[in-house]
């Protein structure tokens, strides 16, 4: 059990998402960085679909009401546990009465906090994921007490684990990319309306650098850079949307649809980000990280996704 003492930014509970409800207008939701969320549960031997705390662009402080083990993953944070400081991608033992703070350090956007056994919260339409715009669940706040299921593994065996060792030395998706002002290469597959854009527009998309606008959220990442020119300017009939779809509105500036993706949209799509590249984009820092797009094939994208999932044994 954890008692939340202080929260800045946005903190919600997220599992792997709400599947099968898009046809009713309900987004999938789930984590912005699926890899970090999965890794946090993996470190604690939790079921893969266990709920975690997703912390975005802020800090959280909580008080342990009983002995437990936590894992924190993501980018741009560190953990203060009692009198010690821990890096991300590790697990640590927390005694009843200790105070833990997940602190923002710069770079990255999202951290994932998993507890041994997984967080126990109401299941709504088959998921514990919070969807704030739809009133499904609510943002976590000071005073909340979070309960957990009984761990399947002895707590002492879960403590002091490191993902880079437990995960067979597999690097995180964004660990191989440059930090700070470096350029992040995001792989994409051409979308159904790729032929709606001029050759100059396509060239601008693949050869230019973009940055993330400060006005981003769980629904979409607005990018800033050279505008992408359309060859077809007619209206598009709204069609289904998925996380990673890259829409081009009238101003030519890309919008990447993220975890709380609307189930339908009417802007033409130039490309879709591969599943393996989504964690990298999710953690790009607004106004700092440079983003470039690189075309790939479905087969190559599937193989990279399989390799990322390999250490989880799923």
The count of domains is: 2
The run of helices and strands is EEHEEEEEEEEEEHHEHEEEEEEEHEH
Molecular shape: elongated
Structural class: alpha+beta
Treating each run of at least 4 consecutive H or I residues as one helix, how many helices?
Answer: 6
Q: List low-pLDDT spans.
A: none
Instruction: Please report the distance between the alpha carbons of the first and last residues.
Output: 28 Å
The main pleated sheet reads as: 7 strands, antiparallel
- Order of the strands making up the biggest sheet: 7-6-9-4-1-12-11
Strand content: 25-35%
What is the average per-residue confidence, as pLDDT, rounded to a whole number?
A: 92
Instruction: Give the % helix.
Output: 10-25%
Q: Which quaternary structure do these chains form? A: single chain
Number of strands: 21
From the alpha carbons, calculate the radius of gyration and give it in angstroms: 20 Å
Give the tags.
314 residues, alpha+beta, Cyclophilin, 7-stranded antiparallel beta sheet, 7-stranded mixed beta barrel, 6 helices, 14% helix, elongated
Question: What does this 3D model show about the protein?
Answer:
The chain is an alpha+beta fold and 314 residues long. It has 2 domains: 2-166, no CATH class; 183-312, Cyclophilin-like (Cyclophilin, Beta Barrel). It contains 6 helices and 21 strands. The chain has a 7-stranded antiparallel β-sheet, with no helix packed on it. The longest helix is centred in the C-terminal third of the chain and has 12 residues, at 298-309. The chain is elongated, with a radius of gyration of 20 Å. The protein starts with a strand and ends in a 5-residue tail after the last helix. The mean pLDDT is 92.
């Amino acid at each position: 059990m954890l008692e939340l003492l202080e929260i800045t930014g946005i903190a919600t509970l997220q599992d792997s998402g709400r599947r099968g409800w898009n046809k009713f207008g309900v987004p999938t939701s789930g984590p912005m960085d699926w890899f970090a969320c999965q890794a946090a549960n993996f470190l604690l031997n939790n079921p893969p679909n266990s709920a975690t705390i997703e912390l975005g662009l802020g800090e959280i402080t909580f008080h342990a009401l009983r002995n437990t083990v936590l894992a924190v993953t993501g980018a741009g944070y560190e953990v203060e546990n009692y009198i010690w400081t821990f890096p991300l991608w590790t697990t640590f033992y927390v005694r009843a009465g200790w105070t833990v703070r997940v602190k923002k350090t710069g770079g990255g956007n999202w951290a994932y906090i998993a507890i041994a056994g997984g967080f126990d919260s109401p299941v709504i339409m088959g998921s514990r994921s919070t969807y704030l715009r739809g009133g499904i669940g609510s943002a976590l706040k000071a005073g909340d007490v979070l309960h957990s299921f009984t761990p399947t593994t002895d707590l002492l065996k879960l403590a002091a684990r490191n993902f880079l060792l437990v995960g067979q030395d597999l690097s995180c998706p964004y660990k191989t990319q440059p930090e700070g002002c470096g350029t992040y290469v995001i792989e994409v597959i051409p979308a159904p309306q790729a032929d709606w854009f001029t050759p100059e527009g396509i060239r601008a998309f693949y050869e230019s650098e973009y940055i993330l606008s400060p006005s981003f959220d769980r629904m979409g990442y607005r990018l800033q850079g050279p505008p992408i020119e359309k060859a077809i300017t007619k209206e598009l009939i709204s069609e289904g949307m998925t996380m990673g779809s890259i829409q081009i509105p009238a101003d030519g500036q890309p919008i990447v649809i993220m975890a709380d993706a609307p189930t339908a949209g009417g802007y033409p799509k130039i490309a879709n980000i591969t599943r393996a590249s989504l964690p990298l984009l999710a953690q790009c820092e607004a106004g700092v990280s440079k983003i470039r797009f690189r075309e790939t094939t479905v087969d190559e994208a599937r193989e990279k996704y399989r390799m990322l999932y390999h250490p989880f044994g799923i």
